[in-house]
Here is the input.
Amino acid sequence: ANGAGGTFATWRYLLEFFKDRYQIISWDYRGLYSSPPPKNRKALQIPHHVDDLEALLHHFKISEAVFVGWSMGVQVNLELYRRRPEAVAGLVLFNGTAGSPFRTFPAGPLIHRMVPGVLKEVSRVANSFSTPLHHLSRLQVTLTLLKRLGIVADTLDDEVFADLLMGIATLDNVGVGGAVLQMFSHGIMTA
Here is the structure.
């Protein structure tokens, strides 16, 4: 289960390592990359993404698996475990949290109060930023700045992160802003 805005490509090193030994399945969250947005824009909450995960399990006839999650994918996997613990043989959780991610973000309570408003504004004006975002995603200085601000770890793989930024830059930014806003503002698992 990816982070919000993440793609299957960000798992490249794990995929390469495990591909000959395990079946690996992932999906794009509603409204991101190859998944169309839902008709109801409020259907972007964590429980809705777990519904999609359960549909994948049913489709592939999987009754039990090890679930790996990154960032928001941690919340998706924890919610699946809450619903169906018998389906979870194990959990591998990276850089995520239960509950509101903004309350546990390294910058603390200020981020918790600021981010929902920022996301709302970004979704309102995002199309005018799509070309600059596309260019920024190609610049090493963008990654350097994010590392210095403590938003991403110093050990982050530059190539993987550049691919992630490029993917985000190609999305319908208004849809993405709305999707991310819904995911974070209304879809946070509370238990």
